[in-house]
Amino acid sequence: MAANLNGNTQSYQPFALRILQGTMADVVCIQEFNYTSTNGLGANTDAAFREMIDTAFGTNFVYYREPHNANGDIPNGVISRYPILNSGSWTDTEVANRGFAWAQIQLPGTNSLYAVSVHLLTSSATERGIEATELKTLIQSNFPANAWVVLAGDFNTDSRTESGMTTCDSYLSDFPVPVDNLGNSDTSQNRNHPHDYVLPSFALTNFETATVFPSHTFPGGLVFDSTVYTPLSDAAPVQFGDSTNAQHMAVMKDFLIPANGTNAPVTNAPSITTQPQSQIISPGSNVTFTVTASGTAPLAYQWLFNGTNISSANTNFYVIANAQFTNSGNYSVIVTNIAGSITSSNAVLTVSNTPPTITTQPQSQTVSIGSSPTFTVTAAGTASLNYQWLLGGTNISGANTNTYTRSNVQTNDAGNYSVVVTNIAGGITSSVATLTVLVTNPVVIAQWNFNSTPPDGMVATGTSNPSLGIGTASLVGGATATFATGDTSLDPAGSTDNSGWNTATYPAQGTGNKTRGAQFAVSTAGKQNIVVAWSSESPSTGSKYGRLQYSTNGINFVDFPTAFINGTGFTAKTNSLAAIPGVNDNTNFVFRFMAEWESSAANTLNSNYDAGDSTKNYGTAGSMRYDMVTVSGTAIITNSAPPAAPTFGGFTFATGNGFGFNITGTTGATYVIQSSTNLASTNWIPVLTNVSPFAFTDLSLLPPQKFYRAVSGQ
Q1: Residues 497, 557: one domain?
Q2: Same domain, 590 and 453
Q3: Where are the beta strands (DSSP E) in 7-132?
Q4: Do the domain assignments include residue 492?
Q5: How many other CB atoms are found less than 10 A from the CB of residue 141?
Q6: Are residues 69 and 207 in the same domain?
Q7: How many domains is the chain partitioned into structurally?
Q8: Which residue, among 313, 321, 339, has the nearest Cα to 281 in the 3D structure?
Q9: Is residue 656 packed enough to be buried (19+ CB in 10 Å), middle (13-18) or exposed (0-12)?
Q10: What confidence score (pLDDT) does residue 612 get?
């Protein structure tokens, strides 16, 4: 029972006690729980409350009253025929003179009932909505999942559709609605508002049963009003006017719970195996939401729309015929059985026929070769939106989001890019965004020819300083070096002063693979498409195989995919690192040439050097000689943003039929004013080029008309 049966004194009087005696509830969520003894036991003392409980219910009843004892406090409480195992009071943030009282009651059998007694504010529906939200959080965070819960008391609501009731309906049941003998469900004193409720959790609704009095049965529960209930002999000692003196009517619901004790059958709470699915449809379509659940039978279903119960939607599927825009929203279902309940995820129904529109078009770009430009489009319309990017009118495989990135572009990637956006209602094609790929000629970043500076006419002397650019050369792993004759074909010094870097002291055959060699450090800042070129040879006692290794941090090195081969004469070699982004624009770029064995160079199991090569007879005295080591790359082009579209303003009319206006755009950017006597695309004549912002006046006006436009001059 929900019972706010006080009169205006806010202290329980004989008329209220008679209603409690006559209706004989087992559990009462009571409001304004104050009482003054009629036998001199004081006001709101333990003895006074015991007197009240014994009189209204019986000596076997127990109670909990929340600790609000200041002047003007009107506490909530719970009175029970069954033992109270635990109890307490939660803070109501909207009011100070009461809280939310709760009690854990041990029912016959194995289950507890969690009863919560509340008295919400009369001041506004907004505050009641806040209280309802707080209650939901408190109940769901403090009581066990799928517990038997009853939230009951004076909600002071003006209607059953208030936001606070919507919150309650998302996890508690207001159906069926209790009524009096005349079918009236309102519970206020003047019987014109639904103030009082008994709201069970969905796990408990399986046990809901009719409220039975000697002369009447109420299938959905009873609103007890002594002025309309007949015969009152059903509820002796109630008198005709008792409910008139009370602030509210008593509200009752009954539950028939099997008391099987420890022999109760094992039950499984429901679980959802297939969630209802979101759907997008056009107006007038039919739609069906379906849920699949398991658990101890029978399973009960209640579908909800935006958190509110849908009347008569009580199967595992829900059908909407001829759906309209007003049917758009969130659909969910609560599945319950004897052991508990579970709420499905939301299935979103979208009813719309809005075709897509493009709000931001993809923009043309000019980039340097090797860059990775990104095109972006912004579109609106009925979800979901689908995207397909095109190059030159042909679909690009896998380009199906609102952005598209073209990686490491080359000249053949230049062209016209566009995107088609579609949804259930139609499609639209974007404007063309032109990609221009700039090709820059490679330049030498650093070069080593190892010749003496100044020339000294000797090949046995030289320098490891770069002959062009900036960089450093060093030896790795204990290798040594001298200067000897270089490549007389590639080196500009010819044969008269041509030195090469003759590296030696390499490991014994089959040991120290790729541990010794020559190393070069070069900054590639501002450059990309890096290429390393050189000329090298080794005598018959030198290493046949070598490997270029590179590093982006000067510490960790990576093998170039293929080894290089040295013959007994100089040959030119090139390794392109253009496909490796990390070496671009890098102040820590380092590469090196390392001696390598056949087992890793040629991917064989032979760790010997020559492997039957008659031109090589490897020995530790052998050397690897380098000349014309060159690092080149292309400039990285930094693209500035295109000028903003020009804007007209400040229109003026001068004497002599003159007409003028102002042009604004990107400050400092160049714009061209063009004019025409008609709108044909071929008749526009440039009349002024200037830098934004600027003013323009045209005094050469002739009938019948003249048109103007401004375009970027970039």
Answers
A1: yes
A2: yes
A3: 27-30, 62-65, 77-80, 84-90, 100-106, 112-119
A4: yes
A5: 7
A6: yes
A7: 5
A8: 321
A9: exposed
A10: 43
362 and 325 belong to one structural domain: no
Last residue of a domain, one of 351, 372, 406: 351
Residues 380 and 332 in one domain: no
Any domain includes 396: yes
In order, the DSSP letters of 472-514 are: EEEEETT-EEEEEE--TTTSTTTTTS-EEEEEE-PPPTTSSTT
Q: Which residues contact 17 (CB under 8 A, 6 or more apart)?
A: 52, 55, 56
Residue 340 pLDDT exceeds 90? no
- Residue 129: C-alpha distances to residues 121, 122, 161, 194, 519 (Å): 10, 12, 11, 15, 75
Q: Does the pLDDT value for residue 391 go beyond 60?
A: yes
- Report the chain's mean pLDDT, rounded to a whole number: 90
Q: Predicted confidence band at 263 (pLDDT cuts at 50, 70, 90)?
A: very low
Gap between the Cα atoms of 183 and 433, Å rounded: 70
Residue 54, token pair as written in the block: 């014994």
Dihedral through CA 400, CA 642, CA 665, CA 677, nearest 10? -90
- Helix-, strand-, coil-residue percentages of the chain, each rounded to 5: 10, 40, 50
Domain that holds residue 665: 647-712
Neighbour count for residue 553 (Cβ, 10 Å): 11
CA-nearest of 659, 666, 711 to 689 is 711
Catalogue the E-assigned strands of 8-48: 27-30
Q: Which amino acid is at 403?
A: T
Q: How far apart are CA 523 and CA 583, in angstroms?
A: 9
Percentage with pLDDT > 70 across the chain: 95
710, β-bridge pairs: 673
Which residue(s) pair with 281 in the sheet? 351
Instruction: Read off the CATH number of the domain in which 297 is found.
Output: 2.60.40.10
Which CATH number covers residue 248?
3.60.10.10
Q: Are residues 613 and 671 in the same domain?
A: no
558 forms beta bridges with 550
Assigned domain for 338 exists: yes
User: Do 229 and 187 belong together in one domain?
Assistant: yes
Are 373 and 337 in the same domain?
no
Query: Cβ–Cβ contacts within 10 Å for residue 481, how many?
Result: 22
Where residue 34 falls (left for φ over 0; alpha for ψ -120 to 50; beta otherwise) is beta
> Which pLDDT tens digit goes with each residue over 625-651?
999 999 999 888 765 567 788 899 988
CA distance from start to end of the chain = 82
The token pair at 409 is: 């572009």
| Residue 101 placed within a domain | yes
Q: What's the pLDDT tens digit per position in 452-476?
A: 988 898 999 999 999 999 999 999 9
- For the purposes of burial, counting CB atoms within 10 Å of the CB of 248, is it exposed (0-12), middle (13-18) or buried (19 or more)? buried
pTM of the model: 0.44
Residue ending a domain, choose from 244, 261, 278 = 261
| pLDDT of 705 above 70 | yes
